[in-house]
TrEMBL record:
MF terms (GO), sorted A to Z: N-acetyltransferase activity
CDD domains: NAT_SF (cd04301)
Keyword Transferase: yes
Name assigned to this protein: Predicted acetyltransferase
Coiled-coil blocks: none
Amino acid sequence: MPPLQAATICRVQKQNTQTQFKTQPGNTMNKPAANLTLNHPTAADLPRIMQIERAGFTAAEAASEAAMAERIRIINDTFIVARDASGTVIGFIVAAIINERYLHDELFAKSVPNPLHGGYCAILSLAVAPEQRGQGIAGQLLQALIATCRIARRDGITLTCLDALIPFYEKNGFTNEGISASQHAGEQWFNLVQDLPAAEAHG
């Protein structure tokens, strides 16, 4: 699979049953990683994905291996991985489609198939391997997911994050809508939402 060029994710393209995310030149929040490919994970990627998940979250916050395997199988269309030139997964983002504006804790344990169109795309996890951080990979994964939401005419993208990560999401177009009702891992979470314009989401 060819490497990505720098910048704004603009479309998806079917190739050998995988969805390959392509880019066009443009501005990014961070310096983009070179020789990066974004596509959907397979079951074989589970061990590496779990390694990255556990490095990025506390034991209480991290998804279980069973939950992550279910996400790969059931909501693969909103699960995107970043691969280096060798094909190794170095980061990922996974989300589930819900009807509500804010995500609820039950989403972290159980996955159900995504509807084809509409709803809010609730980000469950965004993580990058420790040795690959600082290259803009998280931003590229986030923009790739947002692009798929536009194509699927979603109402918007929603997530919860800790206080320290609010600036990152605000720089990527999200609005802080206050403290979340989530009790996940006993932490205080904040609701961050990016609405898709009606003409863009449903046009």
